[in-house]
Structure formats: structure tokens, C-alpha cells
Design goal:
two-stranded antiparallel sheet, 2 strands
């Protein structure tokens, strides 16, 4: 069976769907990858994202928070309340973005057949 295009795999990863069929959910939990797709039974054995998903999450969340920092500088907001707000926003954004990024990197590792950190 032909593998989908990289763009399609990335889009499927963004919605946390199976990179092969786009229907099943490859995750057994919030960040726990299942053994196989419940729909098409594609195996996810040995697929790890290691530090890629957290790295991409930090990259994305950092860029999401920059406009808030710019507003704080522009309007000279008080430091303590702003720091508390930014901490909460950073945590919420990170918790929302991390599983999405993991879905993308699971799909890419599956596409390039990278299992246990080695291309096969």
C-alpha cells in the first residue's frame, strides 16, 4: 500500500489521527502511543518522538506568547500579575500543543520508517 504524502501525514498528525488511514486514533491516552491503529491495524511499535515534540511545542508556544509580551511592554503592565498570567497561559498552551506535535512527529517517524531511533 502506498504511503500518503508528507503534507497529508502532517495534517493527520495535527488532528491526532492515524498517519496511514486518517480515521483511527493512534494514541491510547494523552501522550501514550497505542500498539496499532484501531481502524486499519497499522503498527506503531517502536515509534518514539523523544525530544522532537517537546522542542516543537516550546517553539510554537514561545511564538504564541510573544504578542502578549509585546503588549505588556507597550502598556507597562505590572510585573507580578503579568508574570502569573503568562505562566498560566504558557502552561495551558503547552498542554494543548504538546499532543498535537507528538501526533505530527509520530506520523513523520512512521512515514520514514524510523523505529527505535533508527531508520529501517
Amino acid at each position: 500500500m502506498n504511503k500518503p504524502s508528507i503534507i497529508r501525514i502532517i495534517l493527520r498528525g495535527l488532528i491526532r489521527r492515524c498517519p496511514q488511514c486518517g480515521i483511527g486514533h493512534p494514541f491510547a491516552g494523552y501522550l501514550t502511543l497505542g500498539e496499532e491503529c484501531p481502524h486499519c491495524h497499522e503498527s506503531f511499535q517502536g515509534i518514539r518522538t523523544d525530544d522532537a515534540a517537546p522542542w516543537a511545542t516550546i517553539f510554537v508556544v514561545g511564538h504564541l506568547l510573544v504578542p502578549f509580551v509585546m503588549l505588556a511592554i507597550e502598556y507597562d503592565l505590572p510585573t507580578i500579575p503579568f508574570t502569573a498570567l503568562m505562566s498560566v497561559l504558557g502552561i495551558v498552551f503547552a498542554l494543548a500543543v504538546l499532543p498535537v506535535m507528538k501526533g505530527v512527529f509520530v506520523g513523520l517517524n512512521w512515514r520514514f520508517n524510523i523505529r527505535d531511533g533508527k531508520a529501517r
